[in-house]
Model the fold of this input.
Amino acid sequence: MAFLQEAPQLAHPYRSDRQLLSLLDRALPAARRAALDADLDALGDYAVMAWRRAGTSTRRKPVLTQWDAWGQRVDRIELTTAWQEGPHITTRHAVLAAGHAGHPHARLEEFARVYLYHLASEFYTCPLAMTDGAATAIKASGNAELIGRVLPHFLSRDPATFWLSGQWMTETTGGSDVGHTETTARQDADGQWRLHGRKWFSSAVVGEAALALARPEGAGNGTGALALFYVETMDGDRRKPELVIDRLKDKLGTQELPTAEIHLDGLPAWPLGELAHGVRQVAPMLNVTRSWNAICAVASMARAISLARDFATRRQAFGHPLIEQPLHAQTLADMQAQFEAAFALAFEVAYLLGRVEQGEASPEEASVLRLLTPLAKLWTGKLAVKICSEALECFGGAGYIEDTGLPQLLRDAQVYAIWEGTTNVLSLDSLRALAGDSLGALRGASIRWLEGNDDMHAGSAVRQTLDAAARWLDQHGGERDRLEAGARGFAFTLARCAAAALLARQAAWSTRRGDRRPAAALQRFVGRGLDRLVAPDTGNTAILLG
Ligand code: MFK
Done:
């Protein structure tokens, strides 16, 4: 019999994840920690089942049928099995409801669930993120009627009453510069607002509701004149005729997610608040979905590393398992160190979000959250692509073969850097977040996170790099073009410093309990350098692009 390679096995994503276990042990009160265990265990079981199921079944994509046999427009979308299971898993384990539970650890407990559910859900987490964001924006609007109508559905623990919400912003004019939105809102004779236009990237079109940006008829141009509307998509069990699905997108990844192009042909709509400043009103939603993005990006890293590490114990080359080959072990350890830093940053955003929302946070924590949200989104989005790509390489040719399930990890990971704002848009948002003294707040927080850690080198590297970032800002902040040209390097530097300081806090805690791994991750992560500042040479750029 010719040699047959053993396939990689997926370790239980909850019981085997030392980062998640020790984070929850450190951050949660004992009673809350214990109450969470059953849901996380079950979501880990579901992830193992989904991985095995994917390995033994033919991959499917959603199918749109626009017309029935008799010429009736139906716009029916058939979903994959994981998507059909989505409402049941979400409500049974309170994935969204947990985040709105009214205590400061609610978001941490929610995002632990999201982290475990994400990949098994086949990106059903995308519309869940938007539903969570919509719930948050509607709460922030203070619109009591809407709050009473939709929150019981969005946060339901019963699949029969659970609703998904979309976030309809992107149009053919652009996904970043939404100020050019062409969708208009008109009031009919009865005073009912109705939306007319085309939305170009509508994930969650299978949902029951959405928040949509539109320009009230007669309003001026630009971002400030846009309003934010709430819409419902269903009339009983039929989709409303004023919502037409033109086609599903053919995407590089996230292929189980039915992203659609749609037309709104007079769809009834209700403004969340004032009929202007819609982007300001949707911002709480964006910050929530960006937090989901960061958590889901670290979930992809965790999956890629878990499989690559397992495979390294099963695959022999040149007389030894891969894990005993010095360069391969070095490669895996580098991935692990970067992942641990990214994990620490993404989950701090979740922790701070819970504190801010429950009114428990200091003003300094609120400004750190505003800054860390875009930083976590942009850095983890890029890192997920890098780590998934490296993980595929750890399998050699097998990593390039579709039915191993590995290429999908990389194709899916590419979306984290794009949706919810590209790396550059998020770098510019982190400049927006610097209004006030959020850089000073980040420095103060980092120094506190470093307390108790005895890695002197890491501590001084964080402090020195944050000082260098502040000097960079002083030097370039006066000239907008130069500031923007260097914004990505600046954002990466801040993200890496914050991640290192947070990892140092976890390392101090874990070392006291005999776990030296976070300290080793910190040493390696800081050893690769924190500074990614660039001299924004706009003249040189002009020559290169000329
Ligand atoms: C599985 C993981 C789950 C992930 C879910 C994935 C869902 C995928 C679906 C999508 O991808 S939906 C499309 C997502 N699109 C974006 O994220 C938009 C990208 N563009 C931006 O982020 C722009 O920065 C933005 C449109 C928000 C603003 O650009 P503008 O037109 O230049 O607006 P401006 O004047 O800077 O900001 C308007 C107001 O919003 C200002 O407040 P004021 O009116 O009080 O002056 C800003 O301060 C405020 N603002 C903007 N971004 C904010 C914010 N406030 C708080 N937080 C922010 N992040």
